[in-house]
């Protein structure tokens, strides 16, 4: 009887360990919403004078004449992560998503610098959406050989972005299509973690133009 009880106890403990392991794994893969759909809590504007507002469950960024590049930045820092969002950008406006970025200087709350995932209209010839640019960090990180224009970004529509950053590797997808896999040890040494920033590019005296984001979520890896 004692032997049977002992075997039953061992079996229950084993099941409990499996259940606990599943719970821990679930916590590791939980998605966290970066935007509550109501206000800009958890975000702050840096680097310029563009306007950001919440409208119909979207974050809307609007250009300001004469302003440099502006970014709506998370207050939290992120290192290794998977990030997803949808974006719809006016045809005459360039945008991007900063990852693992930092602030330097004091003008407009600090100059955002670091890796940026490009957002721009495809046009008739295609564009560089999804490739990695170094905002105030050396220009294009994607090599000229790999920087091939494409039309996976759908002009005038909502586009789904997926970004996976793990160690020195950054991978991107647009609307389910793999765009790039960048291994960049150099920028990883200076930017292993940082803020996420939604860009409204400077447009000089043109505009106004807008860019919209929704369904922003992240999970740490």
Mind explaining what this structure looks like?
By secondary structure, the protein is mainly beta. The protein has helices at residues 2-28, 185-190, and strands spanning 32-33, 43-46, 51-55, 58-62, 70-74, 81-89, 95-104, 111-119, 132-135, 139-140, 159-166, 169-174, 177-183, 195-200, 210-220. The chain has 2 domains: 1-30; 32-220, Jelly Rolls (Sandwich). Helix content is 15%, strand content 42%. β9 (132-135) and β10 (139-140) form a beta hairpin. The longest helix is centred in the first third of the chain and has 27 residues, at 2-28.
Search tags:
15 strands, mainly beta, Jelly Rolls, 221 residues, 7-stranded antiparallel sheet, single chain, 8-stranded antiparallel sheet
The number of E-state strands comes to: 15
Overall number of structural domains = 2
CATH structural architecture of the largest domain:
Sandwich
Helices and strands: which structural class?
Answer: mainly beta
Average residue-wise pLDDT: 90
Largest sheet: 8 strands, antiparallel
Strand percent estimate = 35-45%
Q: Which CATH first-tier class of the largest domain would you pick?
A: Mainly Beta
Relative helix content: 10-25%
Rg over CA atoms: 21 Å
Our measurement of the CA-to-CA distance between the termini, rounded to an integer number of angstroms, reads: 47 Å
CATH topology of the largest domain: Jelly Rolls
Stretches with pLDDT under 50, minimum 5 residues: 8-27
Number of helices: 2
Helix-strand pattern: HEEEEEEEEEEEEEHEE
CATH superfamily placement of the largest domain: Exo-inulinase, domain 1
What sort of overall outline do the alpha carbons produce when their principal axes are compared? globular
């Amino acid at each position: 009887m004692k032997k049977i009880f002992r075997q039953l106890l061992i079996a229950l403990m084993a099941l409990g360990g499996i259940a606990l392991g599943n719970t821990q794994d679930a916590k590791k893969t939980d998605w966290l919403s970066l935007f509550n759909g109501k206000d800009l809590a958890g975000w702050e504007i840096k680097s310029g004078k563009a306007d950001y507002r919440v409208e119909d469950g979207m974050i809307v960024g609007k250009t300001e004449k004469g302003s440099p590049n502006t970014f709506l930045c998370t207050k939290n820092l992120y290192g290794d992560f998977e990030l997803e969002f949808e974006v719809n950008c006016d045809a005459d406006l360039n945008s991007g998503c900063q990852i693992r970025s930092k602030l330097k200087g004091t003008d407009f709350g600090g100059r955002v610098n670091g890796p940026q995932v490009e957002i721009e209209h495809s046009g008739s010839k295609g564009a560089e959406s999804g490739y990695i640019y170094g905002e105030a960090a050396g220009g294009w990180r994607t090599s000229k050989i790999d920087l091939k224009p494409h039309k996976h970004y759908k002009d005038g529509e909502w586009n789904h972005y997926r970004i996976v950053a793990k160690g020195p590797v950054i991978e991107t997808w647009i609307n389910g299509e793999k765009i790039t896999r960048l291994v960049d040890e150099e920028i990883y040494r200076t930017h292993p973690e940082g803020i996420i920033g939604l860009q409204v590019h400077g447009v000089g005296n043109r505009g106004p133009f807008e860019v919209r984001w929704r369904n922003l979520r992240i999970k740490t890896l």
